[in-house]
Structure prediction request, 669 residues.
Amino acid sequence: MKRIFILFCLAFVLSDASAYDKKSLVERFTNCSCGPCAQLNNSWYNTTTANMIGSNSIAHIVYNVYWPTPGECDPMHLLNRVDNNFRTNYYGVNSVPNIKVNGINVSTDQSSFVNAVNNGNSQYSPFKIIITPEKLSNNTIDVKIKILRDSADVTTFNNLKLRIALTEKQVYVVNPSCCTNGETHFYSVCRKMLPDGYGFTFEIPAPGDSVEMSYQYVPSAEFLNAVNLDSIRVAAFLQDHCTKEVYQSEMTDIISADRVNAAFSFTDNLGASPLQVDFTDYSTASGGNSIVSWEWDFNNDGTIDSNVPNPTWTFDNEQSYTVSLTVSDGTQQHTREIENCVTVLGTTADILVVNGIAYATYGTQMKNLYDSSACFGNHEVDLWDLFGDQCYNWATNSQIKSVRMYSRDIPASILKLYDKVIWLGNSYGGDEVFFNADQVLEYIANGGNFLLATREGGDFLKPVLKTYCGITSISGLSSLPKLISMDDSLVNVSAVGTNDRNQFVQLDASSEAIPIFDDNAATNFIAGFRIKKLNEGAFIYIAGRPYRFVNSALYHNYNYIIKNYMTSPPTGNEEQLNSYIPVEYELAQCYPNPFNPSTRINYSLPSSGNVTLKVYDVIGNVVATLVDEYQNEGVYEFNFNASSLASGIYFYRLSVNEFSDVKKMILIK
Prediction:
């Protein structure tokens, strides 16, 4: 019975009437500058785990976190940063050394560890895992996994994942300048997870049946330079993604193979339509022969789409695509099929909220933030979770229209689908790894509006963003008991609990940025600002942990900021900005404000009518008539030059049909 699985191709069924002994999975979190980690290793851990591996009683994976090494320089973390961060965040690990046995936290004393392993190994497992890992002649790695299920098993599985790790048996750090805990040899180091830390969903075999799957890995030049492929040991385990229970694990050394093997790599396989993907063949032949034919099927319809080794294909429809390659050396052939190989995404809202908050660590606070819509007000949004599937029920808020669960960077083509992006960061668990300052500036230059709200803002405000915003200095890590509004339309926001590790900014006197929040301290640092340059979108920064503020106050501020500061880009005086038809009348707060001598006024018309836009002084005299004409529905902007007026407070009023609204502006010369 043939079945197809995510990223895999071949499956078959057989019978087995045996119950299976469980092999415990040991996962260790460490860092090469962690003194207590070295002490633990030297006192008992390295010897004990080596003996257990030698007796085939555990599968062993070691993940290197990014702390406490200054500057995030642990080389074992950096080579596999995304997977290490994913597993660290998955368990909510916030200190090292840390040990998990079968997904459960275990004390770092030897007796507790040994008891946990022995207890796990004494349990029944409904599965048996057989691993066949191969290194092909061109260093491509192929991992075959066979999963057998006990014929008597009646367990119900809801979120079962197969996870695969390429571990290196021993890593010798040649230059230990970054690794300051005295260790130079490290064991069972996680070098790559296949396809990533999330693993993949597969069709669970019926009792008594089995399935076989195959996954490829084409190593990068960086990987080949750092890793001894002959020292790879592959660990595979079955884990409930939400409860974290581990049902079974296995570990096997890699072997060399000489056979026909279809393998290929591809460029960015996630994006907006039209998505162009370049494919590169990495297939091998046997016995020194060469591959002589290639058959590519890019949409799983059985039709050969290309016969060249390295084709380019454009994917148009919003869906996931299965891609297959069949190669032959003239006598033998092999097919590799990767399900969900390419995914084309669209939008259901014009605002994208990016979640960088780890649910395993901040569960209740994160839930309260999103359930209250505090970070997007009354607007409908799409959501991108940087931690993938966190077993969080996003459906509890109907304003969240679609959810993208990808633990990776967001392609530029996806960002450009949205008028507004709200990035809720935390610089914890790896969300900052996916923030690209150059990409943000390109997005803003193309008219997008970007709001960054996070603790440890210095990890996001890279030099190019500092220069763009006119930031001269970023503070050290500080507490923030309250956001103090510096804008009449915004309100103060008190912190809830400990809101620490925040960073504030100082602005150059010539910066176009406008302060919107202070940090309640007698310094020149501010906690938030907005900047919108001519013919570009806005960039807004708000310091603080987004999930540790009074949500009702956040709701008011975000709602106002989205409507008034994250507007469409200007195109000139009194011009319709785009063909978008608003759903309600709106007069936005002018920008900049205060100003000298010019400011921009945006307004929205859901229907056509006679429009007047006038400026008044504080006693009600009209000092300027900016618009007095019939206008069609749309979004408009007027560039008001007040060089002929004196410094002071002014008001501007928009009147059209039955609608009228007034805003305040401050001219400072």
Remarks:
- The longest helix spans residues 35-54.
